[in-house]
Amino acid sequence: MPVIAPMPAAHPAPLPSQRESAEDAVPAGTTVDHLTETYRAHYRSLLGLAALLLDDTASCEDVVQEAFIRVHSARRRVRDKEKTLAYLRQTVVNLSRSALRRRILGLKLLSKPMPDMASAEEGAYDQLERDALIKAMKGLQRRQREVLVLRYFADMTEAQVAQTLGISLGSVKAYGSRGIAALRVAMEATA
Fold first, then answer.
1. Alpha-carbon gap, residue 27 to 74, rounded angstroms
2. What are the angstrom distances between the C-alpha of 24 and each of 19, 21, 113?
3. Measuring CA to CA, how many Å separate 81 from each of 19, 97, 146, 157?
4. How far is CA 63 from CA 46, 58, 91, 97, 103, in A?
5. Residues 62-117: pLDDT tens digits?
6. Domain boundary residue among 110, 145, 178?
7. Rounded Cα distance, 33 and 30, in Å
8. Is 128 within the bounds of a domain?
9. Domains in the chain: how many in total?
10. What totals of helices (H) and strands (E) does the chain contain, helices first?
11. Keyword Acetylation, does the record have it (predicted)?
């Protein structure tokens, strides 16, 4: 049978006298009104600071807006009313640095050249050449075809081809040269 954990006891609502003392405990520098006033009064100077670090107006505005949002979210950590502007300035600087890092990374990724790839026309042309070569190879005598396939496609030496086919080295050379000559004629006829 599953065990059901008891629900935590709800905290009773503070009495009116307790609420007033809790509000008094919040430092003056952390109020939303103070942050809003600071933001309105120093928006242009913060925008100028961001403009010194970044190069386009849209990014500067985004950085200043984001700085205000972040300081607003962390307003409980601002203990001194006089440090609110300093927090905003430092946040603008940090966000500008981050924006520059993202740009530099983006430029590094974009500056890498794309790998060379054959165009569709080149691929089609190569396929036609392969098809013509295969057709021409099928038209060769069996021994010529065997010698050429082992020599050039299997990348064997003439001695290895001779040993594999059980023929002499001279025969490998003769079949090879006659096969290449026949391929040349067949390929010129298709071109």
1. 13
2. 9, 5, 62
3. 22, 26, 90, 86
4. 9, 9, 9, 10, 14
5. 999 999 889 888 877 777 778 888 888 899 999 999 988 888 887 777 766 666 67
6. 110
7. 9
8. no
9. 2
10. 8, 0
11. no
